[in-house]
Amino acid sequence: MSSMVQTTITNSRMVAYRWWALIALALAQFLVVLDASIVNIALPSLGSELHLSTSTLSWVITIYVLPFGGMLLLGGRLSDRFGHRRLFMIGVTGFALASAAAGLATSGAWLLTARAIQGASAALLAPAALALVTKLFVDPRDRAKALGIWGAVAGIGSAAGVLLGGVLTASLGWSSVFYVNVPVAVLVLVSVPFLVVKDAIGSRVNLDVPGSATVTSGIVALVAALSGTEQVGWMAPQTLVLMGLAVVLLGSFIFIEKRASNPLMPLGIFRNKSVAGGNLAMLLIGGATTGLFFALSVYMQQVLHYGALKAGLTQLPLAGALVMIAGVVPAIIKSIGTRNTLAVSLILLAAGLIWLSFSPSDASFTTHLLGPSILIGIGLGGAFVSGTELAVHGVADAEAGLASGLINTTQQIGGAIGLALLTTVASSRVDHLMNSGVVEAKALTGGFSWVFLGAAGFAVIGAIVVLTLIKSPSSPVVSD
Question: In this protein, which residues make up the domain named Major facilitator superfamily (MFS) profile (predicted)?
Answer without folding.
Answer: 21-474
